[in-house]
Amino acid sequence: MEEHAEGEAERAASAALAIPHTHGAVAIASTTGRLLTRVEGLAVGIEYIPVCRRGARGVGVLARWETLKVKGPAPDPLGNWSYMRDLAHLARDMVRVLRDHRTAEQPKVFVGRPGMPPLTPSTP
Fold this sequence. Notes:
By secondary structure, this protein is mostly helical. It contains four helices and two strands; from the N terminus they run H-H-H-H-E-E.
């Protein structure tokens, strides 16, 4: 997953969470559409992580995504707004999963010294 896509998803989530429930239905629908696109892309990125390395949060966000896809917005007056907010929170959680995975996969830093064993980060 590209970092700029994660940043765009995070910005879209923040913008969605700032929309009040009194905002127009067209704006809410437009924001929901953008979030759906972002979350679908993030889900693909998380699915590329091997199951043994996803962790509980990674498994959980994919399960929540499946639930939101099936459930859709509730039929009550705040259903579309609540669904948009659920997607925004899910997008933030998905970004966190991807960033945590990237951090865990980064190689450990060792300092090389010619002719001597390498220093590990825990070496005094």
